[in-house]
Amino acid sequence: MLDVNRIRADFPMFKNNPELIYFDNGATSFKPQSVIDAVTHYYTSETSNIHRGEYPLSAKVDSEYDRTRQTVARLIGCEAREVVFLAGASAALNQTAYGLGKSFLKAGDTILTTENEHASNLLPWFRLQSENQIKIEYLPVSKEGVCDAETFKKAMHPGVKAVVIAQVTNVLGSVQPIKEIAAIAHENGAVVVVDGAQSVPHMPVNVKDLDCDFLCFSSHKMCGPSGVGVMYGKYELLQKMEPMLLGGGSNARFQSCGTVQLKDTPEKFEAGTPPIEAVIGLNAAADYLMHIGMDEIHAYELHLRKRLVSELQKLNNIVVYNPDNASGIVTFNAKDVFAQDSASFLASRGIAVRSGNHCAKILHEIIGTDQTVRASMYFYNTEEEVDKLAAACADISVENAIGIFF
Ligand SMILES: Cc1ncc(COP(=O)(O)O)c(C=O)c1O
After folding, report:
1. Is 3.40.640.10 the CATH classification of the domain at 35-291?
2. Which atom of ligand 1 is nearest to the CA of 221?
3. Percent helix / strand / coil, the chain, rounded to 5
4. DSSP assignment of 274-321, as one string?
5. Is any atom of ligand 1 closer than 6 Å to the C-beta of 116?
6. What number does CATH give the domain 4-30+293-401?
7. Is the torsion defined by CA of 203, 204, 207, 212 positive or negative?
8. Does any ligand 1 atom lie closer than 6 A to the CB of residue 358?
9. Residues in CB range of 41: below 8 A, 6 or more apart
10. Edge-to-edge strand ranges of the sheet holding 329-334
């Protein structure tokens, strides 16, 4: 079991907010001192642009920036040249959709996805639907949002050219069988795009083992700075893919007649000055997580979830929507109480959770409600915090929750 007290000492947010119980890790995560130090060091001692300067400071920052690619590659089991830095999971998913729309998908092709997906993993594909006449079909999922391999196999057909799916969904924390899905998709000639925003921070993810073609995730949800995320892609697919952004840093040369020769992957996707400090901070974050161990993080989150679910299931006033999913996300409502009112009530007890539709606006077609309360845990949460959340939930009622302002 993790030594949570020692871990919490690494995070200044706990020292500076001693009363706060933070269960909104699906939205963003706290940062350990090592990440803050890495960013501060860049600002205070190493500020310079990358891949442009001939002086030693610039060369040093170049190598730190490039080292992050290697660290991320170790984290997800790929080659450094397959790691593209973009502004976040949303930017990475937009680039993937744009690139596949330009070079791979054609009018009449089908994309298979689920009604579980975050807006950032649906809207870029909706654009292909309206602009490129691509069809979108939704996979059947269980009441906890999971699409098992058998169901997936039945839904596949020769028209499907891309499968677009979150490895862990952001509302129900449904863990999808990506490895099995990828094997079936590939047998049928489809590429597999995985939204890893809620999986990479929380569990071991190895793209070679999963054999997914693309994986997109954000640094800020995995203890790193905001402003940067990763698009992993298989090298040969990235080489064929067109970048969404063009500009300095991504081209080898261009002429006045308009011809442009792009650099190789990954630089061709990184036009303009990137968020250098965030990339350097992401290196520290990925190192930090790997030092603790992704297996240990995942096991600990599952332990916390089990405890929370079992406490919540004892309460007559609470409905849990995802008791069996294997992630640190627990989604519930208090009976007859609007989710935002429940969240405000919990906030009045110092507990931060998310409420609403969580950017998964068509999920209500699965669970029958579009407003839920989501407690999303991370490895620095404690059993005591879980117990306090459950105790506070026991007190949510129509009378208590409405009209709470703080
Ligand atoms: C499953 C999922 N995908 C994509 C995103 C978008 O991430 P970002 O806002 O960091 O771009 C989120 C954010 O909550 C998410 O939960």
Report:
1. yes
2. 10
3. 45, 15, 40
4. --HHHHHHHHHHHHHHHHH-HHHHHHHHHHHHHHHHHHHHT-TTEEES
5. no
6. 3.90.1150.10
7. negative
8. no
9. 280
10. 318-320, 329-334, 372-376, 354-356
The Cα 215–Cα 196 span in angstroms is: 6
Ligand 1 mean position to 29 CA, how many Å? 12
Probe residue for ligand 1, chosen from 359, 374, 376 as the CB with the greatest number of ligand atoms within 8 Å: 359
Least confident stretch, 192-206, 228-242, 389-403: 389-403
Distance 88 CA to ligand 1 centre (A): 8
121 lines ligand 1 (CB under 6 A): yes
Ligand 1 contacts CB of residue 68 (under 6 A): no
Which carries the bigger pLDDT value, residue 405 or residue 74?
Answer: 74
Q: What pLDDT sits at residue 253?
A: 85
C-beta separation of 303 from 62 below 8 A: no
Query: Ligand 1: does its nearest atom lie under 6 Å from the Cβ of 165?
Result: no
Per-residue pLDDT reduced to its tens digit, 216-234: 999 999 999 999 999 999 9
Which residue among 170, 202, 215, 222 is best mutated to probe the pocket of ligand 1, counting the most ligand atoms within 8 A of its Cβ? 170
Catalytic member of 212, 216, 359, 393: 359
Domains of the chain by residue range: 4-30+293-401, 35-291
C-alpha–C-alpha distance, residues 35 and 226, integer Å: 11
pLDDT surpasses 90 at 54: no
DSSP secondary structure letters along 193-207:
EEE-TTTTTTS---H
Per DSSP, the residues of 356-374 read: E-TT-TTTHHHHS-S-EEE
Which pTM was predicted?
0.97
| Mean of pLDDT values over 165-177 | 97
Q: Is the CB of 166 under 6 A from ligand 1?
A: yes
Q: What digits encode the pLDDT tens for the residues 304-321?
A: 999 999 999 999 999 999
CA distance 172 to 369: 12
Helices 294-313 and 383-394: crossing angle in degrees, nearest 10, is 20
Q: What is the 270 CA–ligand 1 centroid distance (Å)?
A: 20
Q: What is the pLDDT of residues 264-281, one digit of tens each?
A: 999 999 999 999 999 999
Q: Is 359 marked active-site? A: yes
Q: Are strands 354-356 and 135-138 parallel, antiparallel or unpaired?
A: unpaired
Q: Is 219 in the pocket of ligand 1 (CB under 6 A)?
A: no
